[in-house]
C-alpha cells in the first residue's frame, strides 16, 4: 500500500513537470512559423510548420518556392483551434484543415488520410497581430492552398484559384 502511495505521488509530480515547462516557456517559444512550399511537377501547394519537415527533404520531393505565411502556436490554448494536415493519394494533394471544419469521415470520403497535427491557430481576431487565413481551391488541379489575407484577391483569381473559405486567424508577427 505504501509503495502504491509513493508511486502515485511520484507519477503526479512527473506529470506536472511538462505542464510547468509549457507555462514557463517564453511567448516566442510558443509560436511557430508556417510556410507554403510549391511543387510545379505535381502543381501542389504544401503548408508546413517550420522544422516539421527538413527543407532538404521537401526539395528532394520536388518542392521549391518556400513562402512565409504566418505564425501559429505550438500548444493548445483558449480560443485556439487545432490545424491538421491531410494527404490525398488520388491527386497527390496536401490540405490543412482546422478541427471540426470537416469530420474525419468526410475527409476520408474525399480520399484524404494521414491526418497529422500541425499547429494551433487563433479563432478570434487579435488586433493588428492577427491576419485572416483562407483556403482557396484550384478547380483544375484539385489543389487546396492556404493563404493569409493580403488584400490582393485578383492575383489569386488570375492564378485560377476559387472557392475562398475562411479557416482561422494566423499571427502576422510573433508575440
Account of the protein in words:
The structure is a single chain. A hairpin with a 4-residue loop joins strand 4 and strand 5. The protein contains 5 helices and 9 strands. The strands form 3 sheets. Strands 2-1-3 form a 3-stranded antiparallel β-sheet. A 3-stranded antiparallel β-sheet has the order 5-4-6. It has a 3-stranded antiparallel β-sheet with strand order 8-7-9, with no helix packed on it. The longest helix has 23 residues. The chain is an alpha+beta fold and about 180 residues long. The protein is about 25% helix and about 45% strand. The chain has one domain. The protein is globular and about 35 Å long.
SSE topology:
Elements: H1 2-24, H2 27-30, E1 31-39, E2 44-49, H3 55-60, E3 64-73, E4 80-88, E5 93-98, H4 104-109, E6 112-122, E7 130-138, E8 143-148, H5 153-158, E9 162-171
Antiparallel strand pairs: 1-2, 1-3, 4-5, 4-6, 7-8, 7-9
Q: Top keywords for this entry?
A:
single chain, 175 residues, alpha+beta, three-stranded antiparallel beta sheet, 9 strands
Amino acid at each position: 500500500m505504501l509503495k502504491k502511495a509513493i508511486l502515485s505521488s511520484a507519477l503526479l509530480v512527473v506529470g506536472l513537470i511538462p505542464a510547468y515547462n509549457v507555462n514557463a516557456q517564453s511567448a516566442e517559444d510558443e509560436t511557430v512559423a508556417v510556410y507554403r512550399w510549391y511543387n510545379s511537377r505535381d502543381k501542389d501547394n504544401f503548408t508546413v510548420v517550420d522544422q516539421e519537415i527538413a527543407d532538404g527533404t521537401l526539395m528532394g520531393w520536388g518542392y521549391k518556392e518556400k513562402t512565409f505565411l504566418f505564425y501559429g502556436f505550438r500548444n493548445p490554448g483558449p480560443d485556439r483551434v487545432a490545424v491538421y494536415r491531410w494527404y490525398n493519394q488520388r491527386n497527390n494533394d496536401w490540405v490543412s484543415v482546422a478541427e471540426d471544419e470537416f469530420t474525419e469521415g468526410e475527409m476520408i470520403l474525399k480520399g484524404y488520410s494521414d491526418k497529422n497535427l500541425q499547429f494551433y491557430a487563433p479563432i478570434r481576431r487579435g488586433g493588428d497581430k492577427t491576419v485572416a487565413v483562407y483556403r482557396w481551391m484550384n478547380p483544375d488541379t484539385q489543389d487546396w492552398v492556404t493563404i493569409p489575407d493580403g488584400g490582393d484577391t485578383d492575383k489569386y483569381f488570375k492564378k485560377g484559384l476559387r472557392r475562398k473559405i475562411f479557416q482561422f486567424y494566423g499571427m502576422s508577427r510573433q508575440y
